[in-house]
């Protein structure tokens, strides 16, 4: 459920993009024109320019950055991962033995790590990192998390930032190949329609185009019927969901029963015959917004169509 809640934080827009994150004297540094061998400068989501360099104390304040760092950077250059992945990540053993960042607002804790680079997505109030900037800490803001749409760029950006662009290229190619293989044996005419939804209290939230949930459905061989009508994380009304009337509903384990019990939703195709159209997947797996999309898509594909 914590994974679903993390996605919900993005869904509700509680996280917004921050600004400025490097010492003022370095913000305008760029490579000289004509130096083809020099690493290309990188502009983060807030517009601040960074030069790739040999960062030796990298701290991650983002679960997505956690996963990418393990693939793109030497372990001895990493000083901290998010507390979420250390406790509840699908492969949380991979994040042990490092420092912990719970929130980007934990300035004192972050300063004790003595990082030379902090990675974050969707920073909140820029005042929360003011002390980090004043202390000379660089914080790279990747911006919003939008499933694979942003993940491809994040892979390339981080790989270049830590000095290994070739690793980013290899990771992206491997990820694309893994995803395309999941439902490659399912003809387009045989693919079923469905959508992702979850319930928080009495509110119904979806995940469609511009979210990792849409990517999971698509690569699992499911046609997302909310795509084209809604974007990212819609807050559905009962009437809107009844209008969509999905044959399949993909959701986290334990959500099917309370969802189908809401108001008139028992009339949905997916809720009929003891919820035979409801596909429940471990929430930690389903909610991963990074490389875990592969595991999530495989799990959904197997539940609906059987194993490849």
Question: What is the compact description of this entry?
Answer:
The protein has 308 residues and is α/β, with parallel strands linked by helices. The chain has 13 helices and 13 strands.
Task: For the structure shown, list the relevant keywords.
five-stranded parallel sheet; six-stranded mixed sheet; single chain; disordered N terminus; 13 strands
Task: Describe the model.
There is one protein chain. With 308 residues, the protein is of the alpha/beta class. Strands 8, 9, 10, 11, 12 and 13 form a six-stranded mixed β-sheet that branches. It contains 13 helices and 13 strands. 36% of the residues lie in helices and 16% in strands. Mean pLDDT is 85; it is low at 1-35. It starts with a helix and ends with a helix. The chain has two domains: 2-178, Nitrogenase molybdenum iron protein domain (Rossmann fold); 185-305, 3-Layer(aba) Sandwich (Rossmann fold), CATH 3.40.50.
């Amino acid at each position: 459920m914590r994974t679903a809640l993390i996605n919900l934080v993005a869904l509700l827009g509680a996280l917004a993009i921050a600004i400025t994150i490097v010492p003022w004297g370095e913000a305008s540094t760029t490579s000289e024109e004509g130096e083809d061998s020099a690493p290309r400068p990188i502009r983060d989501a807030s517009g601040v320019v960074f030069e790739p360099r040999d960062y030796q104390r990298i701290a991650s304040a983002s679960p997505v950055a956690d996963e990418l760092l393990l693939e793109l950077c030497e372990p001895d250059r990493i000083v901290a991962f998010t507390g979420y992945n250390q406790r509840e990540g699908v492969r949380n053993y991979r994040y042990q033995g490092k420092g912990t960042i719970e929130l980007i607002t934990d300035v004192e804790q972050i300063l004790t790590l003595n990082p030379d680079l902090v990675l974050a997505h969707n920073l909140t109030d820029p005042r929360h990192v003011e002390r980090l900037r004043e202390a000379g800490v660089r914080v790279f803001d990747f911006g919003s998390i939008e499933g694979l749409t942003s993940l491809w760029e994040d892979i390339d950006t981080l790989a270049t930032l830590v000095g290994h662009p070739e690793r980013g290229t290899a990771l992206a190619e491997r990820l694309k190949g893994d995803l395309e293989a999941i439902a490659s044996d399912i003809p387009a005419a045989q693919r079923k329609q469905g959508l992702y939804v979850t319930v928080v209290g009495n509110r119904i939230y979806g995940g469609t185009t511009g979210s990792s949930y849409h990517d999971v459905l698509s690569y699992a061989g499911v046609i997302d019927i909310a795509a084209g009508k809604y974007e990212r994380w819609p807050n559905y009304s009962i009437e809107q969901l009844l209008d969509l009337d999905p044959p399949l509903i993909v959701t986290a384990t334990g959500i099917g029963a309370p969802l189908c019990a809401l108001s008139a939703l028992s009339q949905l195709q997916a809720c009929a015959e003891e919820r035979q159209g409801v596909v429940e997947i471990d929430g930690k797996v389903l909610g991963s917004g990074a490389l875990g999309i592969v595991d999530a898509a495989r799990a959904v594909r197997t539940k609906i169509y059987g194993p490849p």
